[in-house]
Design goal:
Mean pLDDT: 76
Oligomer: single chain
Number of domains: 1
Number of strands: 0
Number of helices: 13
Order of helices and strands: HHHHHHHHHHHHH
Radius of gyration: 21 Å
Strand content: under 5%
Distance between the termini: 17 Å
Amino acid sequence: MNPENVSPDLRLAVGKGLFGAAVLLVVAAALGAAVVVVGGHGEEVRRLWTGLDGGHLALAWLVMTSGMVGLALRWRAFFPAGVRADLAPLTSILFVGMLLNYALPGPVGELVGASLAARRFGIRTEAALAAGLTARFIGLGVAGLVALILVMSGWVPLPEGAGPWIRVATVMIAGGACVLAFLAAFPGRLEQAADATVGRAAEVRGLGWLRPVHSAAVRFAHALGALGRVGVKPYVRAIFWAFVGHALVIFGVWIAGHGLGQAPAVPGLVFTYAASTAGAVALFAMPGGQVGWDAMFASLLVSSAGMDVSSALALTLAVRLQQLTLVFLGGIALVVWLRNGTAQPAG
């Protein structure tokens, strides 16, 4: 494929994704600086700067990035039998998905990623999408359950007055994540819900445009149903890799904290990551949702992990920088595929 023949929409999406990532970095840094200046945290910033450990931060980046391999292994667990999907290209597709999620709100990256995986590994796009979303939902469900167990067990210290609100929010986040995991495991319920809502609405005069939406939901439910017939082992493997992937990212964040001269409380750090990860499904559906995730992550670091404001902002920025490097790696991977003619979406 000649790069000149690539869809202009794909070129535009890549450009918007890279631009969005750069803008997000500037906005996050500006907001963090504003909080530091207004709150009078200049001395804390100077202490952080003098205590930086580049070796720890580099190791933290490597460990957090390795958590993406866990997501790739979850995805691969639901591929059709006999499909050979090497981890390197599969993980690169996840990076491309992250890039496109910075371009547009919603699961754009998952849709394009499924199309790229279908073309790369010779499977149906619907099967790749169902496998990817099932892997995502299982990861969200695991994170939500971890957050719920921690906050309800009393292992995480919560600020006086805000504890009940945090518990309620955690229950809602965990409940939503578990519902998504339930729908992935029992797709018949998803088809019934689509028939009862979108299907019926499409029969109303003036709402005929909903028929393609209903049809797509039914096809997706059927693809999920095909996954359900693969047996229990793929789900067990996916849950295992979800725990491994989350643990790697948490460990990487903990190392980054030490690279900043901080020692965040481990239960609070685990809760912060788990709650923020489970809540990401709602935040990333909105424009600028990444900034909302950063705010949630930093706030929970202060309230649950015992970090001061400046340290929490610095650690959040370190995590965001790691994510942005993956976005740019996704851009590089996509450029390479475009030149080799392997990135034209399938189906």
